[in-house]
Amino acid sequence: MGGWTRLPGPWGGDRRRGAAAAAAILAAAAVLAGGAAAALALDGLKQAPASLAKAFPGGLPIQGRVQAVERSSRGLRLLLSVPGVGGRVAVQWPGGPPDPGRWPLPGDLASVTPAAAPEAPRAARNPYGFDARRYWYARHVGVLVEARRVEVTPGPWSPRRALDAWRHRRLARLRQALPPEAAGLLEALLFGARGGLDQGLEDAFREAGVSHLLAVSGLHVGLVAAGLGRLVAWCGLAGPARWALTAAGAALYAALAGAGAPVNRAAVGAALLGAAPLLGRPVDPLNLLGAAACWALATRPLAALDLSFRMSFLAVTGMVLLAGRLEALLVGVPRFLQGAARGLAGGTAAQLGLAPLLAASFGHLAWAGAPATVIVLPPFALLLGAGGAWALLDAACRACADPLIPALEGAAWLVARLGQWLAAAGGVWSAPSPPGWWAVLYYAWLLGWAGDWRAPVERLRRREPGLPRRLLAAALGLAVLLVWGTAALVPRRLEVVFLDVGQGDAIAVGAPGGAWAAVDTGRTGRELAAFLRARGVRRLHWWAVSHFDADHAGGMDLLARLYPGALLVTPEGDGAALPDRGASRSAAAGARWRPLARGPGRRPALVP
Question: Does the model's pTM come out above 0.70?
């Protein structure tokens, strides 16, 4: 086995040099193979709509095997593998099955009659908007179908099918035993099912900078693995048995939670972390992170398109490189607060690693996310542990699990109220998308701070006595450049943005002085709200509704909740329709309401 490390020619030398060269060659080969696999997968996804139309022409029912089932706000979503079609097909099933007891499972055969022509996922068309193409391509989905009718034939037994059936029974029990808000929160934390989350609660967690707690990620897997490790140790097990049980529990939780990119990364990292002492290998966090990234990209070549994949690895990289530096700054912290200080340092390090990506993707930074996470985490961890214990007990003995329901409801209430209280404090800053050069300089500064450059700089200083002054001048110049580049991003003119909301309108109007207004909301108001939030709009001066069709005024309640006290302008002639169309609820939520009448010379005038 030792001969392979001796390479001929320029690669020759001792064993260490040969091993490094071989590792470099293997890494280059892996990158090339991964790039080729990603290119092939991407080409197949782009051809998927044409392949599906060719396989099932003229609106014929689409036949496919169910790969995954997800609950959404509009019913169910089925991910199908269809023979002859590159990638998977996502089917939106409005309302879901007529019989809730007949939940489709992985392995079932589905026959889908489309309600409209299948479509390819579309790229983001609004500033800071959701990029459906990247999202679905990262999940290996190339076609979206709206179903008119779905017929499901049960498939053969498989471990995955049994696991999904167990997951569905627990979800149904949560919705039966708990109020909607608590049930939706626990569904998201335990099983990664966010379709039942209360929209107001989700918005509050986003405003507080703790929305990452609602999406199952490495934090959740780490909490589960730590709890299982302590439980196994309390039972007297150690060594390989403790590692095997902890790794198996983390992998099981990852499978139940949907096995997304952050979950897979954490599960692989936890398994390798536990295996390292057994194999006599040192633990290097960056090596663990690299191994998890290789695993994620090997199993899903297009995972790098997923925003959650990039956020997960950037956050953990920031924690690995910067958390120690930040902890060193927190001197004199009392012993009983040291755990909170470490959490604050870790959260801040993650935020520093994510800052350019968050600004480019969402247009804002959650400056209070780290301290808010420290505040919410204790009851959140209690809710996660109690929810897991309840799910296991409920599967074995329902009568034994029922006494835990009041505790679950109370813990969910506390977590929700904490999130809303923190949201009221306003923990989000507007941050326009930075240019590429700014992001490069920012990460170069972070890497420089993470490394120890004192010795090289000291050697240069002895060699070049004037170096400190030149470095200071360069740093000041860089600071001026960064401030100028950031200030150049602030608009100085009238800005009118027509948002793409499908059928209907949603228009945002920004004045040079910073005042913002809106005309119409679209069907849901979510696109308009996301844009205004990304631009840092805290106060809406006025907003108008042209008429009360749902595709123009459907988001009135959402906008009134986000911007209470704003002047609401509506057509006077449609006043009778207000109770049915939501404007009365919007006015009750705090909006100052004025109907608009036609004045002299056919000019509109506000009715006092």
Answer: yes
